[in-house]
Amino acid sequence: MVNDTIRPKTSSHDIAAWIIAAAALFMVLRLHLLPALLAGLLVYELVHILAPLLFIRRISGSRAKLVVVGLLAVAIVACLMLLIWAAVHFFRGGTESLPALLKKMAEIIEGSRETLPSWIADYLPGDPEELKRRVVGWLHAHAGEVQTAGKEAGRAAAHILVGLVIGAMVSLREATPTHEYQPLAAALAGQAEHLSRAFRSVVFAQVRISALNTLFAWLYLGVILPLLGVHLPLVKTMVAITFVVGLIPVVGNLISNSIVTVVSLSHSPAVALGSLIFLVVIHKLEYFLNARIIGSRISAHAWELLLAMLVMEAAFGIPGVVAAPIYYAYVKDELVERGLV
Q: Is residue 5 one of the residues assigned to a domain?
C-alpha cells in the first residue's frame, strides 16, 4: 500500500501552475516557438553545469558572482552563435557544401536510370530537360509554400537568437540568492525546474545518440567502404549531416539514411543496397536506441516514448517529434514526484 504521507500536498496554487504550464507548452508548439524555448533552455543548462566548475559559489559578494555568471552566459551565447555560423558556412560554401551534395544527388539520380530496375526507373525523369521542367513546375505550383518556408527559417533564426538571450538572462539566477516567492510564483518556479530537468535528461542523451550514429556513419563511409575499394563523394558532408539531423529524434536518421543511400548509387546499385542494409540494421535501431537511452534517464519504457512521439507528431508534425521526449519527461517527473506513478 502506498503511504500517502510521503506525497506532497496538492494546493490550489499547484493546480493553477499545472494549468498555466500546460497552456504555455501548448502555445509554444502552436506559435512555433519551440526553437526559442530549446535555445533558452540550452544556455541555462550550460551555465548551470559550468558555473560550479568555475567555483562561482565560493566567490564572496553577490555582485561579483553576478558579473562572473553574466560573463559566462555571454561567452556561452557567443560560442553557440559561432557554432551556428560555422555550421551554416560549412553547409553553404565550398566543395563539401550542402548545395554541392544536393547537386550531386540530382546527378546521381539522373544517371542511374540505366542501372536501376525498370519499375524504379519509370518514376525518374527521362532526361535533364524533363527534370528541369518538373522542378520548375513544382516551384511554380508551390511558390507560396517555398516563400513561406524561407520566411519561417528567418523567423526561427530570430527566435533562436532571442531564446539564447533570454536563457542567458534567466541563468543569472545562479548568482543570486534564493528568492522568497509567493505561493503561485513558487509553484510556477517548480514547474520550470521540472521542465529544465527534463530538458537536461533528454537533450544531452540525444546528443550522445547523435554522436553514436555519426560514429557508425563515419566508420561505414570513411573506413569500411574504402577498405572494400569503394570511395564515395562528399563523405565529410554526409557525416556532418548525420550529426546535425541526428539531433532530431527518429526523423533525423531517416534524412541521413536517405542521403547515404542515394549517394551510394554513384558507385553501383549493389553498394546502394549494401548501404541500405547497413542503415536498416544499424541506424534504424535508433528508434529503440533513442527511447532506451532517454528512457533510462527518465525511468520510461521504450514504448512510452515511442507512443508519445507518435501522438505528438500527429498533433504538431516534426516539432511535435522533437518536443515529445522533453514534454513526456516533464510530465513523468511531475507524476513521480507526486507519487502518482
A: no
